[in-house]
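Recap for those who missed Tuesday's class. We walked through two folding examples back to back. For each one, the amino acid string is listed first and its predicted structure tokens come directly after. Nothing is annotated here on purpose, so try labeling regions yourself before you check the end of the notes.
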Amino acid sequence: MPPLRTDLRALDQAARAHAATEAARLLREGSLVVLPTETLYGVGANAADADALERLRALCALDPATPLAWHAPSGDHALRALDPAPPVHARIIERLTPGPVTLLLELDAQRLGALHERTDLPRGAADDGATALLRVPDHTLTQRILEHAGVPVVMVGASALAGAGETAPRVEDLRAEAREGVALILDDGPTQRRKHSTTIRLTLAGGYSVAREGAVDARFIEKRIARTILFVCTGNTCRSPMAVAIARHELEHRDGLPGVPTVVRSAGVSAGEGAPMTPEAAEALREMGIDPSDHRSRPVTRAQIDEAESIYLMTEPHRLALLDFAPDAAARAHLLDPEGNDIDDPIGQGSEVYRETARRMREMIRLRLQELAAPGARSATA
């Protein structure tokens, strides 16, 4: 019997919601359903139903032991299932899901057992005993279906059901005989990305690598998960460039933000272009064993503010000046001192004042980096 095919494009919101409810019911009861995602169409099954899982693998001509990707309704679901996750892994989930990536998770026995327990995924459905597959599709209706199904859903990219083509961005790409193996096809037209998802391996050691590029490339992934910190003072020749040098040193030699790629920059609310760090500031850093590096001043720009995930300012007037320029940055703009005190400008006050300012800022920067590295810490821009 051919499956019911529902053209979502012809439906109003109420009818789309009804179609989602029906798809969730069918999945829950053990039927196979073809669902849209932002990459390709996929055929899904209730992973907790052994018969449904067997029929899905047979339909896609997969080995019975092949793990299938668990499709979580949201990044929050994924984070809860994997808690605690290494910092860079949590960061990848926060910044790249929902989205066109499949995560290949290396897990030890304890974390794999916790994943099974928290998701009701049976052993072997989405893992091979050492790695598990996770995807969070960026398609609102499919997310709703996954949520309402109330069971763990695994999906196989429908390219496995396609004819001569390597992808299946349209329902029409599915072979006729493959369509007869499912109960319902939800047709939402050509997918947005029209390519398979990019696979990212999350290693047991807490790192990551791009295993296969697809809808997004490795460069996009690196830029997306990188954390940018911006330090701001007045002329960008004393306090903020010292803060950058200190932060880079801490990130390199301490456990500032383990595993999370971090970019540190500085600017000034009244800075000119190209002035060097003051000699006193550079000397204070060297006395602390910190390389002052080469620095040239620059004024703060809208692009810098938009890119920065965390902005640390030296004084309240600096913060107000920045917010006058970019009021939408309020949630990301903080005084460097966690206690809310100003860090006065040392310019013209001698080497000892510079040394004391650098020492004081180092302690504050350590505290701020610890805050960012804390489990559960979320970016305002994530």
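Example two. Treat it independently of the first, because the proteins are unrelated.
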Amino acid sequence: MAEKKEDIELEKIRAKKFQEIMEKTNKEETYVPFTLTDSNFNETTRRHSLMVVDCWAAWCGPCRMLTPIIDELAEELAGEIAFGKLNVDENPETAKRFNIMGVPTLLIMKEGVEIDRMVGAAPKLLIKNRLKRFT
């Protein structure tokens, strides 16, 4: 009888821990922009009804200025809009396919299809207001 009680308690603890891990994983996935590559771009952008893709390069100063803004928006708009980052130097096929001529470029995607884009660094409020049209 004592063994069964211990087994039940252990199972409760396991279930609680599993739930905590799943909640943490879901939050991290939602709040942190996805890393997009040539190989996962299509699948990832199609999986989300609305996604902003930050096309950037490591050498780009305006891209580095935009990074904290994208991170903040990803957290603020979690559940409404997914965010992803595509390094154009490391993923030239996707950059070429979307005719990315300058960075930073924000692609606004709906189920894998580009519906809008913003080229150049912009203030957070301007980006957020532009995105509100699609939510």
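Answers for example two:
The helical segments are 2-31, 41-47, 61-76, 92-97, 124-132.
The beta strands are 34-36, 51-56, 82-87, 105-110, 113-119.
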